Structures are given as C-alpha cells and as structure tokens.
Amino acid sequence: MIDLATLTRALGELDEEKVLFMLNEFAAGNPTKAEANKAIEACQKGMAVVGEQFETGAYYVGDLMFAGEVLSEAIKILEPIIGSDSSEKVGKIVLGTVHEDLHDIGKNIFKSMAEASGFEVYDLGIDVPVSSFVEKVLEVKPEIVGLSGVLTLAIDSMKDTIDGLKDAGIRDDVKVTIGGACASYDTMVVTGADAWSNNAAETVNVCLDWVRGA
C-alpha cells in the first residue's frame, strides 16, 4: 500500500516528480478501487496544504494552478482503477462553474472522478449563465446538476441557477450538489441545493447513492 502521508506531503510541497512516481508504482501493484480512492483523498489533502500555503502568501496563484495540474495527472493515473467496474453509464451530471466565477480546478477534479465512476458528465465550463444550465438540463435530462464556485459572490450565482431551474419547472427532476471554496452547509441552505462538499470523492459517492436510490 502506498504511504498516504508521504503522498500528501509530496503534493503539498509541489513535488510533481515524487507524486507521479509514487502513483505509477502504486498503480503497477494492482491496487483495489478502495485503495485508489484513498490515494486520491491523500492527494486532495495535499491540495488543502497548498491552499493553506496560498492563503498565507507562501505560494502564489501559479503554484495553486500547478498543484491542480499535478492532481489532474494523478487522477489520470488512477482512473483505470477507480473506473474499472464502470463500463456502463450509471447516470448523467450537468456540471459547471456558476456565472461570475472563473475557477475550474475543483470542477475538473470532480469531473474526472465522476466519469471514472461511470457518470456521463456534461461540463459547461466556467462563468456559466443560468440559461445554459436550464437549456442543458432540458436537453439531456440528467439526474444531477453540479454547481461549482470559489468566490463569495458565487453563492448568489448558485442560488440564481437553482431558482432558474425552479422557474423552468425542472428543479424537482434533479438533485443539485454544490462544491468549491464558497460551499458550506449554510450555502446549501441559502441556495436551496440538496448537498454540498469540498471533497470530490465524497461528492461522487453522494451522487452514486442518488442514482442508486440509496
């Protein structure tokens, strides 16, 4: 089994070479899906360290973006493992960063993990207007809508989007989950979402429970 603490520390220190070496070696050992998910969670903890360093001024925006790229590469290495039993699509997710927010690292991480777990994900990108969410939901009829946002003003945008689904008469047809730095229990209540999390693996599990009727 991979040393999860060392993996977390390596990503937190932006040691791309060590992170990828450890994960490639780990993947070569035929780990289970559960073990691979633990490795991803360890990487996410490393991203949390990067975020803390960014907040203190020790890291810069470029470091934050670089860490996100390393994490995306890490997920690609593990995708064949966590998606090994997902040949059939389990459901559809319409995903996007809400309007007035341009961040996409967290969204992209969730997308990769959701696809690897068997979901068909329709990624609308960043700064997505309410109308685009409504149109896509009407078009593909997903079970789930994922709203991502980092900035505080994204909370209003999330509420606008969920209200837009209500106005279109399709809010009750989908479950809505929110994620990103602005997401919290209070944000979930204010926006009218069904769930919230800043952990991509946790959110994927919630989505799986939804489509399985758990």
Automatic annotation (TrEMBL):
Transmembrane segments: none annotated. Residues 90-214 form the B12-binding domain. SMART domains: B12-binding_2. The keyword Methyltransferase applies. GO terms for cellular component: cytosol. One of its GO terms (biological process) is homocysteine metabolic process. Keywords: Cobalt, Metal-binding, Methyltransferase, Transferase. Signal peptide: none annotated. Its EC number is 2.1.1.13. Residues 1-90 form the B12-binding N-terminal domain. It comes from the Bacteria. GO terms for molecular function: cobalamin binding; metal ion binding; methionine synthase activity. This is Methionine synthase. It comes from Robinsoniella peoriensis. The lineage of its organism: Bacteria, Bacillati, Bacillota, Clostridia, Lachnospirales. The gene is metH_6.
